[in-house]
From TrEMBL:
Native organism: Duganella alba
Official protein name in the record: Uncharacterized protein
Domain of life: Bacteria
Amino acid sequence: MIPQVRYERIGKFIFGACMHGGTIVDVHHWMADELGVVHPKEGDEAAIESLQAGYFAKFVSDEEFSESHQRFMKMMEQRGA
């Protein structure tokens, strides 16, 4: 994946989490859940990098990414309610 696209996509998640009182940790937990893997420990940069690489390798197309992001936003909205 082109670094710029990856940067923009992670930014959409971070912005969405912040809009609903969340943090980057919520984003990482979502990515782990989408992949069916263990949540990374906060501060474990190697695990977080691996998680993000796996997530973006799985959700490559714009449509796949958009669907995952929409599910994330719905979850964050419901959590904040």
